[in-house]
Write the structure tokens for this entry.
Amino acid sequence: MNHKHIAAAAALAMLPALAAANPYQPYAGTTLVVSFPNHPHYDAVDKVLPDFTRETGIEVEVDKLQYTKMRDKQLLEMAKPRGDYDLVAYVVFSKTDFVAKNLIEPLAPYFLNPALADPDYDPDDLIDVYVENAGLVGGKKGYLPGPTAGLYGVPFGAETSVLAYRRDIFDKHGLQVPATYDELLEVACRIPELEPGMGGLASRSQSGHQIIHAWLLHLAPLGGRIFDDHWNPIFNQAPGVQAAETLKRILACGPKGGAGQGFGGMKELFLQGKTAMFLDSTVVSGEVDDPNKSRIVGKVGWALHPTGARRGSQTGGFGIAIPRNSQNKEAAFLLMQWLTGKATDKKIAHAGGSPNRKSTFADPAMQRRFPHFAVFGEALKFADADWRPLLPVWVGELKGMIGPKLSDAIVGDAPIQATLDELAERTRRVMQREGFYTYQ
Amino acid sequence: MRAGYATRLSRIAPYAFMAPAVMIMAGALLWPLAHSVWLSFHEWKLGTPQDAAVFTGLENYRILLADPDTLTSLRVTLVFAFTVVALEVALGVGLAILLERPIRGLNALRSIFIMPMMIAPIVVGLLWRYMYNEQFGPLAQLLFMFGVEESPPWLTSPDWALASVIIADVWQWTPFIFILALAALQSVPTSVVEAARMDGARPRQTVLYVKLPLILPVIIVAALLRLIDAFKVLEVIFIMTEGGPGLSTEILSMRIYKTAFEFQQLGRASALSNLLLLLVAAISVGLVLFNKLRERAHASG
């Protein structure tokens, strides 16, 4: 047998291995339709998607919608026998609703499939609290981790809360970065006196989802919860009232025209230099130092979410899941795996997105480029996965009922305690109707 | 025999000719209505298959009528609809009377006046949301030029928001009343107007006692059409306030949308749609009856 024959035999022997080395081959030419939100993280994703198509031959068509409206269309699509979406991004609170309605795929069969699952995916590297918050369904309370939970989505564009503050303004007036809620309120209301025309802290306050988010952001650190362990509403107790009063004070000391903002409006107020502080999602960091979007480049410092009765930062943002009625589930899984893999996570972070992996935060090169990653890593240790109840009834009826009333009490003049008492009573009736007190 | 056949045919023929139209009407109008009534007796959550709908009888109606937010929404709807129609009729008819006389450049003015009506409601919502922006909006800048530093909280205060969306609707739909009133005014016979003048009527009196009574039937029909529309308006409010702050602009159509897509209760949303339909039908029938009685009184008087 001469060298030629040996080489040919070796090549032949390697053929199956070569074929297996490219898991994307069977799906090349497929077009995946994905439903993504209009959100800074997904703006960064847009920049890396062409790389996926180049590497795999799989095309991706993105249907982008405003993130609070995205769910309506997804529900309608996913309820059809054959849906148009192959991958959907959802705000984490939709996970239980989607699973309860049997609309998204459990991911275990895909991670078990050797032709699809990348052995180097390293699931341990995904940030635990993000996986718990965005992906696990069926554990404690139905939405928390636990032995009975299963994985239905992977965090992608997940976030926690941090305090961003204008270092230049704080240095100029010798202000201390607030570590507690008392200090936060004091500084927030001193800023407008020290810097006329500038508000203390930007906050969401738009009627509905946004004002609930703002109130919950303070409720958990101030020691409150929506429900006790038996689904009795307790948000009308002292911490609930204190959280509403805190939000009211923040808005009063906020920027001119700051009322009625959603997430985007609030972020803009901070990026345009109209407020000295921002206490919300980490995702703002991707835009703070982008001169095309920000007037405060290089002026921002980062700190942990201030402490009230306890330290607790929010956990939110998005996860991605595969609809059960997708026609391209395997290819969709490959895209999901690629997007949330180690290499892409770093790429997206470079493009201004939010990392979902520990290795991205821990990478010295990343830390050099994004010094705030150290604070974010610390904030994640205190991330509270139970700061809001991720129940289908909460996402639907309760949020819709509570949002406008909360707005009346915080933006309007309705009495806070009486409003919360009335809402707690109405919440109890809805929970009763939905069967939450069956075992009581 | 032959004549009998022809008679029978001529009796059937009209129904035969009408049948396709009746079938299309039944399919396109009655079936969805019947389905909506059927749905209102069921609990069906958005995102679940229709066979998952559970019959609950009148439960949806009971929940809706026991919900204080439904009553708030009903009150907001009535205030919104009657205020916009009253303002639009007053302004539209007023403008028509002013612009009826031959003035130079009148045609151009008329065209400009009816432009808002041609803009898609979504765009009107976006346009006014920008107008009302407290930081960058043209209204805030205009007020600033006059020394008002703090813009009113047009869309962000429960006290202002309803008035603000009413202004937007009046801006868009006054032209509708205006063109109908103008056409009616122009069709008033000149002989009647001249007779009044010869009897010594002043221009104001001619308008009040001759022209307005003559165009009243047209105005009533136009107002009725606007009223029906005003009860169903969604897009402008959806874009400008989404029903907020609080429930201050949550008209029934907005609440139906939220019940279906936010609360995900399709059955309850159908029940609310049916209640809105009943309300609009009652008001429309009432107005038509009122007009008939008025005409009869007028004829006999």
Q: What stands out?
A: DSSP finds 13 helices and two strands in chain B. Residues 44-300 of chain B form a domain with the MetI-like fold fold (CATH 1.10.3720.10). The two ends of chain B are 53 Å apart (CA to CA). The mean pLDDT of chain B is 90.
